[in-house]
Amino acid sequence: MIETLVPGLFLRYNYYMAIIIMLIGLYAMIAKGNLMKKIIGLNIFQTAIFLFYISSSDIIGGTAPILTTDPATVYVNPLPHVLILTAIVVAVSTTAVGLALAIRIYEAYGTIEEDELIALEAKE
Amino acid sequence: MIADHLPVLVVVLPLVGAVATLLAGWADRRLCFPIAMATTVIQFCISLVLLSQVMQTGPLHYNLGNWLPPWGIEYVIDQLNGFVLAVILFLCVLSCLYANRSILSEIDEKKIPAFYTVLLLLVTGVCGIAVTGDLFNLYVFLEISSLAAYALVAIGREKRALISSFTYLVMGSVSACFILLGIGHLYIVTGTLNMADLARVLPPLYGSTVVQTAFIFFIIGLSIKTALFPLHLWLPDAYRYSPSAVTVLLSTIVSKIGVYALIRILFSVFTPSFIIIDIPVMEVFCWLAAAAIIGGSVIAIAQTDLKRMLAYSSVSQMGYILLGIGIADSIAVTGGILHILNHAVMKGCLFMIAGAFIYTSGIRSIEDLRGIARTMPLTAAAFVIAAASMIGIPPTVGFMSKWFIALGALESGQWIFVLVILASSLLTAVYFWKVIEYMYFREPVPACGEAITSARDPPAGMLAPILVLAAACVLFGIFVSIPLEIIVPFVTGILGGT
Amino acid sequence: MKQDVVIRTVCRLVVPFIQLFALYVIIHGASSAGGGFQGGVIFASAFILIGIAFGVADARKRISEKCTVLFSACGLGIYAGIGILCIVFGGNFLGYSFLPLPLPVPEIRGLAAEAVEIGIGITVMAVMTSLFFDIAVDEEAV
Questions:
Q1: pTM for the complete prediction?
Q2: Under a CB-based contact definition with an 8 Å cutoff, are residues B435 and B300 in contact?
Q3: CA 20 to 30 Å from C23, out of A51, B368, C49, C110?
Q4: Do A89 and C37 touch (CB under 8 A)?
């Protein structure tokens, strides 16, 4: 197990970075009480996955997949980029819905702090 | 000519319908309901045609943009998704009919066009999940349906719906991210996203840790979406505080499509040999499902709010479907898939009735329902039928699927799960009997006397779907061979079977 | 929330160029890097810039709520319409090569994909703009 992990740390550090960023996002979602910070955490989480996809398709020395006359050109696989473009659209929509909800929660309760919201709910 | 294009039309039609509803909403708000209704009815007809085609000629394949799979996106319809599509659209038609009257008291009038637009977008997403044969496409449609669901939960006047919608959004997005990661892992290993192609390429790679990690990501992501027991925490509040029509949609359509996606990934992307032999995940699944069945029922007994009680009961009932799949015996899987139809019918009926009580009398609490059977006789009778079905009293649908799951458990020697099913039936009887007792055998409490005596059976638009579903509870129980004819060929196809 | 005169002047100068660039990105979507979504977002950023510099109310005068809804429906209509046109001419949904245009097949594909990109661009522009206005409008009231 260890002998595969350690070289992996240097050769595939992009995946490790993606996982670290993902966990930062997860931490923000769980530990932060402010709904806005939760949305930011969610965004960090999603971005880590985008990084995971994009870096997985990269080839050292590869270029954009636009046809050239040189047959020796190495292309980067464009499919993950396209998939992630779609996933970004999804993430933007999720963020928008989240922000709109946060605004309406603020209008209804006057706060977006989670502990205050729980206290207000318990009072009612 | 049109007949060849039905698999894509079933997805495009609600999308066009959503735009039409939005624009019609400007001219006249009353136009929105007929458009939405017409769209769902046509879709339901399409789904029946598709199902009959599948039964006659085998799976249908449709290549979007004439690109051949595995490069292009392929829509595939076999017995399983033909069945799920028909069930879901049947419930869509009824909930749409029900929504016409019930939302009037629960959402602002100026939001009615938005409601129907988002409803049709939800249907678009759900139908897309059902027909697609491409993993990434599944993710996109899953997110379309989830985003529509978040918006629908928050559309009412209820203040707390906002917070439950936010929780649902965070949980739902995390689960979608897990699914996306799973898809990414599989793509990195295999270079394909087509489900049939993956099923062909994956078996030699089952030893790879990347494939196993991908599998775990899929399981966790979809477990959150289907609210499997320890991950169900978003569900009760989302069901409790959303408008009645939305609760019906969530409990019958959104949760069922999550289960469908889970079955599809377990059995069509991965193979039974992987999930049963290589990774003993099915055993874990069985125990989690058993915990869901018992835990959901126990918490449901403690509830005082009718809709919340039904929500916890949903957690328990979803456990049945997953238990059937987890036992992975051909009879139990048949029972599990049958329970998709059965639970949709029963729970749809019960949530509609809970909404009808709120609509006519404003009562949400179980204890305040004392004596309501006298003023709302038809609704109360429908409740009794659906409750009997939930408990699993024969000739109702609930009995049939529990019977199959228990039989499958016995067949594979896992008798402990038979005990779980029996215990849960007793617990279910406890919490439903409490409601029935209050409705039929108690005098109204003074505080609610006025509301009870002035309550009437709801208007025909709401009563009709309730009665149709109550009748379906009995009819599908008696004529259980009709759904079985569709499910059994699929199950024998994947499990090879008895 | 009206901003300083320098900001307003610079905005007024920059906005047409942003929009032109957005159109360029949309038009080049099918043949090179770029596309409907990116172009749509850039186009929407022009309106968002106006919203920030001149205040939301002023920006709403330039592109009203009805306008954004109409645009988003229109873009979706283009997308679904082209898909269904392909069915009418005997292809599958979005099977561009079946469109009866007097051109070689790759060019028909390119053109139809471009039309779909334009539809997507319009929808994304409208949705992004209205998202910003809907979320920002309360800031004004407070």
A1: 0.92
A2: no
A3: A51
A4: yes
